[in-house]
# Entry
Amino acid sequence: MSVDSFVIIGGGLAGASAAGTLRKEGFDGDIRLLAAEPHLPYIRPPLSKEYFLGKAERDSVFVHPAAWYAEHDIDVDAATKVTAIDPPAHRVSLDDGSSVRYDRLLLATGASPRRVEVPGSGAVGIHYLRTIEDSERLRSELEVGGREVVLVGAGWIGLEVAAAARGYGNHVTAIGRETVPLQGPLGDELGGMFQRLHEQNGVEFRLPADLVEFSSQDGRVSSVLTDAGTLPADLVVVGVGAIPNTALAEAGGLAVSNGVLVDETLASSDPDIFAAGDVANAYHPVIGQRMRNEHWANARASGRVAARSMLGQRVVFDDIPYFYTDQYDLGMEYSGYPPLTGDARLVYRGDVDAREFIAFWLAGDRVVAGMNVNVWDVNEQVQNLIRSGRQVDAARLSDPAVPLEEVLAA
# Structure
């Protein structure tokens, strides 16, 4: 079957990466990208980092300028809501009553913030951070300074917002169900390190504490009631995870479970529909299990793989998950397989107390994840250790005198 038209649903990095890859690989047919938001495709990390802190211009969040799409003959329909997909008919329905035909379809619909459903949750001043507008609204309130900010959730988004809020001169209290921040992804030891970092910068933690209710005055949030007490609040930021946007896929009859189920080629249960980015729950051939990843590197890489797969190329998505964070004077990169770190042991290289070190997660003496904190230009070597799948000598791994590229040589 000839393939003349591709439709991409989703205006984020995964969709833009796929569109660019299609052209790079020589596809000269129609490419139509349908974006629900009224913007060109953009990336999300700056929304809680550089742009949020006022250190970058708005244009920096966009994947490409408008001229790039015109130069590559890619049609971007912004502020366009897709209401349904019809796999047998190979058509996509839009909210204006029209429809678009496709030969191959990519679902890059992303995820949405998980909402809290407690009394008072509709009050003004309760924020979620996902879109450009979310970031700008929240920044406009934080940059006033001198406010009582309560964070519901002590994960990556919550801690990045905490650092920014303190930088703008606000008092910050974080609550969550964990006993330490980032307990799920990092465990107690490293979660405790992040907690100490924030406490040294004036953030208070109430952990564990469960959200019970928001109180308001004149329609605006005024306090947060938890099972451990009440906290005053001029504004609240909720960061308790995200839910993949699978409604279209589910209604279209695709296999769905914590995302759109796709194989290692990113093909769904329908051979002409693929998924990439936050919405894809992909089988990872290296670890032999499914994994849904919400970080930007996954969106970029999976978009590229999906595009090549849609073109019929023999390709699999086997990238090592990667993300980074910047909080105060701490910069960090993480590479690895979160599903394999639960029972892994930690090995450190460097000075943990000074926050200049690399942490490795070892499962069966194999490196399954690594995190470099204020140590730079080592991510490639860390990923090489993970990718090798070989057993390592923990003593050599922890010894700064042994170059990382020589750890496997023994």
Observations:
- The CA atoms of residues 42 and 62 lie 4 Å apart.
- The two ends are 52 Å apart (CA to CA).
- The mean pLDDT is 96.
